[in-house]
Design the sequence.
């Protein structure tokens, strides 16, 4: 469901916390299922400050201490499960690896943009997953060694070339940050195109498969929609050079002399 | 009327073992579905760092891997399971390569392997220091390729099992799932079998490398329908976790040559004689005890941790093979591993025990299988070797999926359930250690028609959830979970005393009683994590109790289980597996001898030194 995120309680910029031992959070709240939360609002939480505290830890404190209905996805606490991407003071970030002490307060915490809000900081991920699935995201070599105990060879250089692209944790920050994805719901989006790059550039996949992949990502809602604004690259918590990868695929598509947008 | 989804095989949990089980069942030609409280790529397999052991190279062999694993287990692994693991691992690891997993590579393009603790050959295959991430994503890609149905963010809360007197006569017909997005309850009817692959219970402790979702759900559910949990007292504490968060620093750092120092700059693993031959690459239990002994002797830094130094490896090698470690140390401890040593201390990492299965993943209940960290097959015995968890996932995940799909894997050599080999427990256990549990799961709804069993389980579950949401009290699950985590960390940790374990059992009993008053504050049907975590907390309580009970009864020192009063391994008395069964609302303990007879003879217990 698409939610009008405007609230009556926009957090005031620069409001000062009374007690410096407390961290002030302003957290976006919305729940279609609970009457008093159907109108989006911001709730304020004052959390005891601790050295090295992450925004995720502050949110957990807020939930466990003050409001058990405060809802956000989180699991690994170490930036590998990709569950807790959100907007923190307007910036895309994983809450688990964002430290409170590095932020201006009050800290404004909001769900990712351009994805429908399910509840509080939880966004609907289906669209993101659909786009990931759209590029046939699985390894598909033209041939394999006959012997089940023999590996395909891959040069260390080629492994290095695809290395950063394989680090994606599906957090959807890139899609949330992308103006094109916001305007074109069918645009594959940076993570999905990066996935295509990961397989296309892997020398273990064959020419034939590569040609099919290029055809797929060069369609009307593929790589040519990217306007190289670099927002995805800026927000990626795994430092994947997403725009570079999209540009590389544009070059591959051009080389193959396929359809231009 | 709740909806019932029917598939031949239902796999609960979509980490490495679950995904592999689903692929296995699909390869066997049946209709399989995954049901998981997380989207598959969020699973905790993704946090594994170091690598996958497999004998791939000349000079190495599966039986050397088996010998290392038996020694690492302190002779509490079962030989049929260990030999299956080590035999199957090479082909299954190569299968991952054929599925495109981006392993680190040698100059000639072959996959790299590195040394790991307790291994006689450098057989740990790896992908940087993020091997689990690549394993998880590679397996998920294969699930997508096969079009396997995934019910993600569906939390399985109950097994649908018939209620015969003897657990070995019971049958599992499916599970009950709760759709986290909408609050809908639905049944999942498995015509072939259910595979539990829900991972570890690290949240029983407060300093753990495990995700907050690792609450032992599957093991606790299986336990409550009558499947024994095996060897739960054997909990691995990883020697190198970051002090402030418990984030794991891979054993790969020591595998590549990283060195541990105490506050006096001594390389204590050698200089204080903890492991005169292997030093930092001794087995994990040995290194964790050494670190805590150093800290207790006043040679810790800030009385809390020791230093792990990798600076001498050089930037190029670190960036090539351990780059992820630099990010973790920087992001979660504010330390630049290229410029300074990293602070590390032991943290809960892995549960060696779990749902008792044979080497085909079968439990003593017909139609119920398990694989991965939630299971105990058992290959790890009293101590798991680094790099042996990921091959366990793929080898036994696949076998469980194949078996649930009806494939013929041959007769198992390991017996499950309370067979003629079972021995009673002579220990004096605290009275009513369990008790006061909520009404239990086993039900047949007055009939043995499979769909009726599933429907009856849905009805029971609906009652439970309504009750939790209706109840009005100030008691929140997080208070109870915190109490469990604190007492387990204080009392059932690396070093264990009888008084401490008894104190933990008292606390667990109190928490269990208090749980009867816990209430869910969030009334919502949409993404109600308050409800989810309240249900998880009951699982945490059950699992904690099985760990503490096993630890109290086992009066010896073996592998990861150390007892103050019993400083020797006692093979005459304790070369046997612990089982905890949930009988009539009470845990009961019993034992079965370890199976040391391998294909080529017996793995004779030897003194274990590194």
Sequence:
């Amino acid at each position: 469901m698409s939610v009008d995120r405007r609230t009556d309680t926009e957090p005031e910029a620069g409001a000062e916390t009374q007690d410096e031992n407390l961290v002030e959070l302003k957290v976006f709240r919305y729940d279609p299922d609970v009457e008093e939360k159907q109108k989006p609002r911001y709730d304020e939480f004052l959390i005891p400050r601790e050295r090295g505290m992450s925004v995720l830890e502050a949110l957990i404190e807020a939930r466990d201490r003050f409001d058990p209905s405060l809802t956000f996805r989180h699991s690994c606490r170490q930036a590998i499960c990709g569950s807790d991407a959100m907007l923190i003071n307007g910036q895309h970030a994983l809450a688990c690896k964002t430290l409170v002490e590095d932020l201006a307060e009050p800290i404004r915490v909001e769900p990712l943009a351009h994805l429908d809000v399910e509840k509080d900081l939880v966004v609907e991920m289906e669209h993101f997953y659909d786009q990931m699935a759209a590029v046939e995201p699985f390894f598909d070599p033209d041939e394999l060694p006959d012997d089940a105990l023999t590996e395909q060879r891959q040069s260390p250089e080629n492994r290095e070339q695809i290395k950063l692209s394989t680090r994606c944790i599906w957090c959807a920050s890139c899609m949330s940050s992308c103006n094109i994805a916001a305007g074109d719901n069918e645009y594959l989006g940076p993570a999905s195109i990066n996935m295509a790059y990961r397989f296309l550039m892997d020398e273990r996949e064959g020419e034939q498969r590569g040609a099919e992949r290029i055809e797929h990502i060069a369609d009307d809602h593929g790589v040519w929609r990217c306007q190289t604004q670099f927002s995805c690259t800026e927000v990626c918590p795994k430092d994947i050079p997403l725009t570079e990868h999209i540009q590389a695929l544009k070059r591959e598509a051009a080389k193959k002399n396929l359809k231009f947008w | 009327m709740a909806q019932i989804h029917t598939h031949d095989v239902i796999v609960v949990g979509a980490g490495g073992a679950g995904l592999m089980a689903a692929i296995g069942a699909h390869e066997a030609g049946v209709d399989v579905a995954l049901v998981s409280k997380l989207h598959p790529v969020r699973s905790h397999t993704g946090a594994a760092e170091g690598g996958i052991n497999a004998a791939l190279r000349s000079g190495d062999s599966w039986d050397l891997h088996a010998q290392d694993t038996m020694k690492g287990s302190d002779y509490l692994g079962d030989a049929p399971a260990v030999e299956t693991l080590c035999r199957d691992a090479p082909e299954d690891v190569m299968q991952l390569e054929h599925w495109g997993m981006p392993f680190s590579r040698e100059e000639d393009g072959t996959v790299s392997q590195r040394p790991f603790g307790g291994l006689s050959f450098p057989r740990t295959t790896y992908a940087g220091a993020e091997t689990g991430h690549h394993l998880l994503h590679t397996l998920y890609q294969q699930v997508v390729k096969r079009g396997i149905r995934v019910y993600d963010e569906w939390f399985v809360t109950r097994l649908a099992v018939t209620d015969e007197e003897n657990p070995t006569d019971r049958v599992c017909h499916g599970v009950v799932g709760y759709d986290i997005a909408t609050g809908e309850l639905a049944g999942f009817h498995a015509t072939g079998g259910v595979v539990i692959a829900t991972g570890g219970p690290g949240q029983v402790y407060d300093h753990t490398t495990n995700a907050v979702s690792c609450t032992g759900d599957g093991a606790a559910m299986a336990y409550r329908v009558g499947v024994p949990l095996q060897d739960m007292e054997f909990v691995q504490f990883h020697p190198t976790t970051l002090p402030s968060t418990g984030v794991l620093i891979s054993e790969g750092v020591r595998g590549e040559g990283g060195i541990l120092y105490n506050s006096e700059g001594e390389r204590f693993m050698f200089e204080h004689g903890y492991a005169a031959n292997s030093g930092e690459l001794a087995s994990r239990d040995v290194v964790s005890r050494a670190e805590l002994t150093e800290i207790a002797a006043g040679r810790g830094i800030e009385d809390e941790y020791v230093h792990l130094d990798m600076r001498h490896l050089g930037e190029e090698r670190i960036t090539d093979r351990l780059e992820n470690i630099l990010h973790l140390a920087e992001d979660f401890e504010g330390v630049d591993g290229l410029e300074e040593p990293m602070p590390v201390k032991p943290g809960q990492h892995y549960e060696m025990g779990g749902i008792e299965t044979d080497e085909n993943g079968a439990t003593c209940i017909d139609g119920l299988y398990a694989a991965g960290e939630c299971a105990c097959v058992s290959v790890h015995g009293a101590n798991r070797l680094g790099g042996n968890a990921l091959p366990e996932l793929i080898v036994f995940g696949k076998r469980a999926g194949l078996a649930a799909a009806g494939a013929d894997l041959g007769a198992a050599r390991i017996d499950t359930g309370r067979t003629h080999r079972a021995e009673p427990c002579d220990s004096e256990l605290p009275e009513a250690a369990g008790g006061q549990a909520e009404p239990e799961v086993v039900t047949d709804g007055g009939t043995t028609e499979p769909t009726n069993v599933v429907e009856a389980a849905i009805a029971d579950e609906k009652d439970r959830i309504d009750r939790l949401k209706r109840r009005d009290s100030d008691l929140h699950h997080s208070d109870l979970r915190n109490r469990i985590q604190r007492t387990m960390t204080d009392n059932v940790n690396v070093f264990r005393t009888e008084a401490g374990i008894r104190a933990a059992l008292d606390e667990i009993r109190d928490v269990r009683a208090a749980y009867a008053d816990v209430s869910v504050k969030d009334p919502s049907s949409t993404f109600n994590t308050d409800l989810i975590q309240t249900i998880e907390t009951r699982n945490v309580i059950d699992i904690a109790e099985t760990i503490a009970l096993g630890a109290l009864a086992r009066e010896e020192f073996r592998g990861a289980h150390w007892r103050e009063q019993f400083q020797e391994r006692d093979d005459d008395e304790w070369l046997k597996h612990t089982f905890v069964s949930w009988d009539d609302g009470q845990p009961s303990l019993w034992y079965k001898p370890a199976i040391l007879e391998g294909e080529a003879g017996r793995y004779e217990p030897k003194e274990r030194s590194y």
Q: What stands out?
A: The radius of gyration of chain A is 21 Å. The longest strand of chain A covers residues 22-29. Chain A touches chain B through 59 residues (CB under 8 Å).
